């Protein structure tokens, strides 16, 4: 089957590029002696998680319990949920999951730790806990290495302290490395072993080896890559595995063409760039605007005619994954399969 037979808009995933991206990152991690724990929020597809583990990944990372439950159902058995799980509903599900897989969760507050300690005791389960550290990313995380040590000391019973976790801001590897270095000194002075030091983020994936003490890295977007990763220098357009296939449905002026992919396909993420995607077949075109179901392509000349079908590299592949029930696996222009995005929409 050729991609021209597919109804648009739809998502194409080039399996050859996926395999190359997985292999390249795993080889890099192996070369530098740290583990990979890929973040599946990018693809949300168990078969791709299995490919990552078969290539050598230690396990997987999920952002949400719902994603982790889908992956556990599919047989993935070593899962980090890189999120503070708060509330009895989540803790009850956490306990159920801890009985099925080797589970690790994140905590950055006494509130979260108390919930983990209580559920481990009440449900008689054990799981690992990483203290999340704000090493410059400005999102979750304890603010100092001393706070990390104090919080780690409050874990007990089945909720076991297993190490440190951080999600640094893109381009801030050096700051993160300095923070981790100080933290390891603080833990060492207190004679508290730190088993895992986990960082993540595709923009700085290829700099991961410059952080002494790092034991694992959690890249997510690397599996597909996207326009933002090309802009960050982490990939080339030739590495981008996920594209949105769209059709030109209107050409009101020579310098404006309208495609059938809007925010519900490409998402409204700009991530600091101009335009909402890259059109390899018409590189001079800018995807200058989107409404829900329309995308506006602008170029002085050479815009495609009505009926033309275009592959668009989105700015942010992970959120595109969350918009579609299925993706088409392709090799070049050949459609190989149609597979469900099983963990799509599992945001709780
Ligand atoms: C905690 C955490 N780890 C890892 C990642 C993976 O980042 P990237 O998709 O840039 O590889 C993310 C992305 O949101 C994240 O939030």
UniProtKB/TrEMBL annotation:
SMART domains: D-ser_dehydrat. The keyword Lyase applies. GO terms for biological process: D-serine catabolic process. It comes from the Bacteria. Keywords: Lyase. SUPFAM superfamilies: PLP-binding barrel. Pfam families: Ala_racemase_N, D-ser_dehydrat. GO terms for molecular function: D-serine ammonia-lyase activity. CDD domains: PLPDE_III_LS_D-TA_like. Residues 241-331 form the D-serine dehydratase-like domain. Belongs to the DSD1 family. This is D-TA family PLP-dependent enzyme. It comes from Gluconacetobacter tumulicola.
């Amino acid at each position: 089957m050729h991609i021209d037979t597919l109804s648009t808009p739809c998502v194409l995933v080039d399996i050859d590029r996926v395999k190359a991206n997985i292999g390249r990152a795993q080889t890099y991690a192996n070369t530098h002696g740290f583990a990979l724990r890929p973040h599946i929020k990018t693809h949300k597809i168990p078969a791709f998680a299995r490919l990552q583990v078969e290539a050598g990944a230690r396990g997987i990372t999920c952002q949400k319990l719902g994603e982790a439950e889908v992956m556990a159902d599919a047989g993935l058995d070593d899962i980090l949920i890189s999120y503070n799980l708060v509330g009895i509903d989540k803790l009850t599900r956490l306990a159920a999951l801890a009985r099925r897989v080797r589970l690790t969760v994140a905590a950055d507050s006494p509130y979260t730790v108390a919930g983990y300690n209580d559920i481990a005791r009440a449900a008689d389960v054990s799981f690992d806990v990483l203290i999340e550290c704000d090493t410059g990313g400005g999102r979750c995380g304890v603010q100092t290495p001393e706070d990390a040590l104090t919080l780690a000391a409050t874990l007990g019973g089945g909720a076991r302290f297993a190490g440190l976790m951080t999600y640094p801001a893109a381009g801030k590897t050096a700051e993160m490395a300095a923070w981790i270095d100080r933290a390891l000194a603080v833990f060492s002075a207190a004679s508290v072993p730190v088993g895992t030091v986990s960082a993540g983020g595709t923009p700085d994936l290829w700099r991961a080896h410059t952080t002494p003490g790092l034991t694992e890295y959690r890249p997510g977007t690397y599996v597909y890559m996207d326009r933002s990763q090309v802009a960050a220098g982490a990939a080339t357009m030739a590495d981008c595995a996920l594209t949105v296939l769209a059709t030109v449905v209107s050409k009101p002026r020579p310098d404006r063409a309208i495609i059938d992919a809007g925010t519900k396909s490409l998402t409204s993420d700009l991530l600091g760039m101009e335009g909402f995607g890259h059109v390899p077949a018409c590189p001079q075109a800018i995807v200058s605007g989107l409404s829900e179901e329309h995308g506006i392509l602008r170029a002085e000349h050479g815009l495609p005619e009505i009926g033309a079908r275009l592959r668009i590299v989105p700015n942010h592949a992970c959120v595109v994954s969350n918009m579609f029930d299925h993706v088409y696996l392709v090799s070049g222009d050949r459609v190989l399969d149609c597979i469900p995005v099983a963990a799509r929409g599992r945001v709780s």
